[in-house]
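lol ok so funny story. i was supposed to be doing the assay writeup but got distracted and ended up predicting the structure for this chain instead. priorities right. anyway since i did it might as well share w the group, maybe its usefull for someone
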Amino acid sequence: MRAADAKPLERDVDRYLEHLERERQYSPHTCAAYRRDLIGFVRSLDVARWADLRSAHVRGYVAALHRKGDATRSIQRALSCIRSFLKFLGRRGEVDGNVASVVRAPKTRRKLPQLLDTDQTAQLMNVAPNEPLDLRDAAILELFYGSGLRLAELVALDIKDLDLAEGFVTVTGKGRKVRQVPLGRFCIAALERYLGSRDSTEPSAPVFTGRGAARISPRTVQQRVRRLSERQLGTSEVHPHMLRHSFASHLLESSGDLRAVQELLGHTDISTTQVYTHLDFQHLAKVYDASHPRAKRSS
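and the output, tada:
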């Protein structure tokens, strides 16, 4: 299809993205990813109207992505995006049925997330305040590990979201879903020390600031976590999401309550949380292999 021919179909993509942003309250980052996937799909088509779309078109696009060498997860995301878009068109009466529903993306083995063990975590958290920024960074570490926040959630926090007296933080997660997450005593103490060092703690002010009292950037948080990891553990491989993974795995290992971990992490689907049961089993399997007489191989 020539670029000019794709314009009417691209306008439908624009309407769908406007629906996601205004009515479904998707983030700009998510909408941008959807746009890339859908515009790529539209420009691969040889039809002028959605009524002529067939499953073969979708299957051909998925195959083209696979031949191009796109990651399996990227292909799965693109197919999911196309399915959602066609469902939207179906509600508007522009397609009869969802032809993408019969197309399957290549499967991938789920990669288990990396995490720290409890001793490593304790060593990382034992930050001595060598400089003023250490108070801020210690509070950041405690929030990541103590409450399991995502990077974007932590950066977006305002002072009014904290209730240190009651011991919880109000978090706005994916899809603008709001949840309350408990704060442990170490986290509360770290936040109190950090906020006590601040010149201003107006309710509308960001919790974590960078230069000029502006809201800290995600990139800065990643860099500071890496720097502390190098200082405390001698490795630069620790990142914010690893602390979230460690929070979830350690909590599940101690409690066994998958549903509670799901709520604390803000997962919509419990299957997303179930990856931590695999981590827990992996840990138990290592203990078994190292300790059980019947598991030990003869040398």
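The radius of gyration is 23 Å. The CA atoms of residues 147 and 183 lie 6 Å apart.
back to the writeup now i swear
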